[in-house]
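queue> holo job accepted (iron/sulfur cluster)
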Amino acid sequence: MSVSTDTGKPSKIIWVEPEDCILCYACVRECPVRAIEVRPNVDHVSILNDRCIACGSCYTICPTRAIRISSDLEQVRLDLESGKTCYAIIDPSISAEFPDITDYRNFVGMIRALGFKGVFDMSFAVDLSAQAHADIFTDFRGKYRISAKCPSVISFIRKYYPELTDNLVPMPIPAIIMAEIIRKKNPGDSMVTLINPCLASRLDIRRADATSPVDTQLTFPELRELFTLKKISENSVEFSEFDPPNGRTGSLFPMSAGLMQAAGQFENLLDSNFLSEEGRQNMLEAVDEFAKTYDIRKHLDLFYCEGCIMGPGMSATGHKFRRMTLVTEYARKRTGITGKDEWTREINSFPLADFTRTYTPDSQILPEPDESEINDILSLIGKTGNDDIDRGCQACGYRSCRDFAVSVAQGLAKAEMCHLYGTKNRQEYIRSLKTSNDQLAKAQKALQESEKLAREEKEMTREYSETLSALLQKIPSGVVIVNENLRIIQSNSTFIEILGEEAKTIDEVIPGLKGADLKTLLPPQMINLFSHALQHNQEVLHKDIQMENRMLNLSVFPIKKGNTLGAILRDLSLPEVQKEEVIKKVTEVIDKNLEMVQKIGFLLGEGASDTEKMLNSIIKYYRSED
Ligand code: SF4
Ligand code: SF4
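queue> job finished
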């Protein structure tokens, strides 16, 4: 018989299917130990395995069935079909699950028909465990104890009241005791399946150190599935009794105080030395008070659920008090199956010392965050100093705003879970959305206007350019406009004509020589004049320059300081230009020498006016040639 220490961690038995989670936080609200985490930027909750006590509360409350529990159904089916020796342990709460089966011997027959070689009633192990509890409770040595019957309670104490771990009665839960008895009575290779409504018993079965004498577990709905799969019904089987050893009042186990009653101990306000409590809230408060004060002065006999008859592995339909009646009737029948003497002999053949279990602490207590951190979170979610932070709407799943802030600080929750924070954020978001919408509308309007302006400017520029180009073509002299790099912006046909054949060829490809480099088209002396005009922002007028065998006259003048120059180029060898030049020169002579002419006129009398007449006639002659 094994004497074990509870050190192994169970493998994963409960989890959340992300795509089915609607973030309603019903599970967060229900979880007694804050084992459900909501991480920032994650759209589903997650179960923290190390913190979970496998109570199954979240599993039963989840409206979308997003919370899943592991199932051994397929493994059990394979084991049964493989021809292995399989034994079943039946929890007495089966009587509350199958009111549709008229006699318990029928469901024993049905289970046997599935292929189980032995079908055992867990009540016998309950009787043994009850005896151990009664002995310890009675032999009081100054230390009050907590019963070791509910695996959720055991797990809760190890994780959240680790200092009370030594107060647990050092016995395994009855299912484990029963499996050890089966293995002792039936040595050799076999598979033991526990059929019960308790999710938390999987904590024991799936211990990572593989020391559990139970191999697989079925919930009652899974057992129903197996019956359906194998087409087994009450009609298809004969009565069958459990394999011995049979229990007696151990069948009362699924109800509060059932364990102690199995040991003949009754809760009596005046005399009893133990307190039996059931249900989540009662259990939590009883343990908390037990931890904080010695004043209770009683041992605790606790169930997490309202008895196993309301465990997460029962069918969802069914009422507690009807179930209690069914269990009581079942227990009455079962108690009479084995005579007291025979039962006593069986009980005595299994010394209690063979079933000890040492529980070890598995603390999951998180460090308390700083008050300043809690206050920061409270103010983030809009709670001011005047608000009652020890209460709250509980929409986030926490009992109070303070509890919620602590969980956020500990990384178990996120601020977005707070309804108030969410609303505030949404309003701010809507406000900011409105503001940015307004800004967007303004920007769009400004953009449209500037696009319109740009279009108009472009159109004007195009018109100017066309006008300028047309005007330039009308000017009889060569005209060129260049940028600061002496690249041609505009030029007229006379300019191209003066430059010669090469320029004309370029003009055919690039009309107006736009973009051409002036330096490649004009001789260096002319380019120097352009550079001078550009650098000094000065005009350079009427410079005669020899180009090939022609005399050209160039005037360069700044149009825009530092970056645009204009130039007029004339070919002095052309007759019309020559005439114009002569007129200009003669006019200059007349102007410059007017005073001298006047003086000469004064000295020569009429002769001076003849000279002027003569010069004017020259001008007239040239003009008449136009
Ligand atoms: S099974 Fe229980 S302890 Fe585990 S997450 Fe669900 S409610 Fe919490
Ligand atoms: S109860 Fe929990 S797991 Fe289920 S949908 Fe709501 S938040 Fe998700």
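queue> The mean pLDDT is 86.
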